[in-house]
C-alpha cells in the first residue's frame, strides 16, 4: 500500500503527514511537485498536506492547482484512488476542480470571517482546537470510511482561508442531498451553530470537509495529522496523560488504509 505525500513550495505539514501514513501500516514517501507527474500512477493513494503553497499568492491553492502533478492526480482520481487534501490541500483540490467533483471550479475557500450576533468579530488567520461532527454514512468517503455518522472528535485548525463559499445556485443543496458534506464544525455536544466560535471561519453551513460524488476525494480544513497521537492533544484532554493511545485524527488515516483494502 504505497502513498504519495505531495509537496509543493510552501507546504509545511508533509513530514507529520508521512509519519501518520506510516504509523497505520502504509508505505509512503514525499513526492515533490517537480518530479515527473507520470510517476504518480505507481501509488495507491495520495495526501496533499497543509501549508502555504506558493505563499497563497493569488488565492490559497490557486498556483499549485496548475502544476502538472495535479492533472496526473485528476487522472488517478478517475481510477477511484483516494486523495485527501488537508487545509491547503483542500484549497488546492477546490482550485483544481477535483472538489466538489463537477469538473469545474465552483467553490472557493475564502478569507475567514468570524461572525457572532450578526457582527464580524474577527477576520483572517485562526488557530485552535475545534469540534467536528461526521456527517456522511460509513463507507461514503475514503477519508472517513470507518467512521459512524454523527461521531464527534476534537481536532486542530490553523488557516486564514477556510470560509467555504460558492456562487453556484443550489450547489450546497446538492452536496447535502448527495451526502458529499463529510464534516461540519460543531460544539462539544455535536450541535451545529453557524456562529463564531463554533463556526470558526464563517464557512457556509459550518462545512469543514466535502468529498467528490464518488467519495474517493476528500478535502478537509482541520489537521488530522496534528491529532494523530495522544501526546499531541492539548493539556486539558485527559488522553494526553496516556501517550500510547491513538489521537482522534488517526481515524482519517486508518480510513484511507481500509478504503484501499476494500477497493483494491
Structure notes:
This protein is α/β, with parallel strands linked by helices and 264 residues long. Helix content is 19%, strand content 25%. The chain has a nine-stranded mixed β-sheet with strand order 2-1-3-4-13-12-11-8-9, sandwiched between helices. β6 and β7 form a beta hairpin. The longest helix is centred in the last third of the chain and has 14 residues.
Task: Calculate the mean pLDDT score and round it.
Answer: 96
* Helix share, percent: 10-25%
Q: How are strands sequenced across the largest beta sheet? A: 2-1-3-4-13-12-11-8-9
Got a strand count? 13
Structural class: alpha/beta
Can I get a quick summary?
This protein starts with a strand and ends with a helix. It is built from five helices and 13 strands.
Key phrases:
globular; alpha/beta; 5 helices; 264 residues; 9-stranded mixed sheet; 13 strands; two-stranded antiparallel sheet; single chain
Describe the protein's topology.
Elements: E1 2-7, H1 14-23, E2 27-32, E3 45-48, H2 68-78, E4 83-86, H3 88-95, E5 108-110, E6 113-116, E7 119-123, E8 126-134, E9 152-159, E10 163-165, H4 171-177, E11 181-186, E12 207-211, E13 217-220, H5 250-263
Parallel strand pairs: 1-2, 1-3, 3-4, 4-13
Antiparallel strand pairs: 5-10, 6-7, 8-9, 8-11, 11-12, 12-13
